[in-house]
Amino acid sequence: MNELNNIQPNNTSSSPSEKSAPLGEHQPVETDALALSAQGRESNDDTEPVSTAGNRAKIRVEYKHSLATRWMHWINFPLLFVMIYSDILIYWADSQHEGLNAHHVYRVGIGDWTLFRFFPRWFYNDFHLKYQLAQGLAYHFFFMWFFALNGIVYVLYTLFSGEWRYLIPTRHSFVGALHVVMHDLGLSTRPLPQQKFNDAQRVAYTGVVLMGIGSMLTGLAIYKPTQLHIITTLLGGYEMARWFHFRLTLFYVAFFIVHVVQVIRAGWNGFRAMLIGYQIMPIELVKQQEVSNGQDAPGR
Q: What is the pLDDT of residues 128-137, one digit of tens each?
């Protein structure tokens, strides 16, 4: 928060209301880039532009993520790790003798044909993961309640706070997501529209919420197949529920890897926003964002 405490509003560009209003949610503050120089240089994404008026460029501090969103995001991180770790323990108990189990749930293949099973034998031997089915089930059945509760609270928060408007994909989001992917791969030079969450993020984050619902339903069908036999039957039976549950775990791992890579590519500014709630943007970028959203640019 040191950046925020040392920022002095620019008297030459702010309106009287901006000068007197306290820094808070949805209250941007404009300042000179040199006001942050004492805090050290940021990453390439945060480098302040140099104006023709002489080495002073304006920036804006904007509120991006609420405290509730940040708390639930960081709570979910270790919970997801424990859930995947316990999944590995359960997986190994099923696969310690390849071909022993008739159901062949924890593998990738079609019908009776198996393409591969995850992790070679040395992986489990080196990390001492053999024969820990009871431990894996205990971890999984204990932490799943916290994982599910955190997800339910997050969904309710987005609904009642109105955050869903920034997350739910629109009818143009899937085409826009393809544009984002091509841009990230260097196949398109057309600039991306500036918005809180781009189209690819809308699709991905909404997909993760749906995956969470699927994991909860398939998990309950596995956990209590007799008591919740209606859910188990609708999912195609106990073995099919396990099959869906395992595939959803693979999608979680894929999402986690892509998410971390994208955070690294976005730089410190985006990571800081998830820590303290604020991001620092050059004024010119803010103007482009407001114009792309159909608003008048500041100063007009």
A: 766 678 888 9
